Amino acid sequence: HDGPTYAHRLTRLRHALAQLDEPYALILVDCPPSLGGLTRQGLTACLRALVVTELGLFSVTAAGRAFAAIDEIRSSSAPDLRPLGVLVNRVRTRSSEQAFRQEELMNMFGPLVLDTFIPERAALQQSQGAGSAIHDWPSRAARDLADRFDEVLAIAMTSMQPEKPVAN
């Protein structure tokens, strides 16, 4: 239920995940594209937050609001929460409007914008419609998408590695 975000509700998912018998290297929490209670609970339970956006006026603005929410949640209830980055989804490389929005996104978030992006491909909708993983869908476009998703997974896994001390 996506209702009011009382403090005791925000930590429910974090406490539930802490009860797992086996430690997992990575747990993905996919939240709705809103900043309501469910998303705030998900963010409170996480160590890293990946903001997924498209290259449209309202989507770029929403990414800014998502980072503000991440900062707010980190300062109030999840001190270990950090942004992982911005993943741009449904990219059409020949769109001048999207090129403009990409530049706007880079100006707003700089190095947080991942080099990897997800292009608009029919293969994704086809594999979803067939109930098939993109990694199993038989097309070149699907293999390209699978490779891109693997790159994002590698970024997430790397971000969870302990930082090595800097030698003096």
Q: What can you tell me about this protein's structure?
A:
It is built from 7 helices and 3 strands; from the N terminus they run αααβαβαβαα. The chain has helices at residues 7-10, 12-18, 37-44, 57-76, 96-109, 122-129, 140-159, and strands at residues 48-53, 82-91, 113-119. Strands 1-2-3 form a 3-stranded parallel β-sheet, with helices on both faces. β2 (82-91), α5 (96-109) and β3 (113-119) form a beta-alpha-beta unit. The chain starts with 6 loop residues before the first helix and ends in a 9-residue tail after the last helix.
Helix content percent band:
40-55%
The percentage of residues in β strands lies in 5-15%
Counting H and I runs of at least 4 residues, what is the number of helices?
7
Can you summarize the main beta sheet? 3 strands, parallel
Q: Walk across the major sheet and give the strand order.
A: 1-2-3
Spell out the helices and strands N to C: HHHEHEHEHH
Radius of gyration over C-alpha positions, nearest whole angstrom: 17 Å
3D shape: globular
Low-confidence stretches: none
SSE layout:
Layout: H1 7-10, H2 12-18, H3 37-44, E1 48-53, H4 57-76, E2 82-91, H5 96-109, E3 113-119, H6 122-129, H7 140-159
Parallel strand pairs: 1-2, 2-3
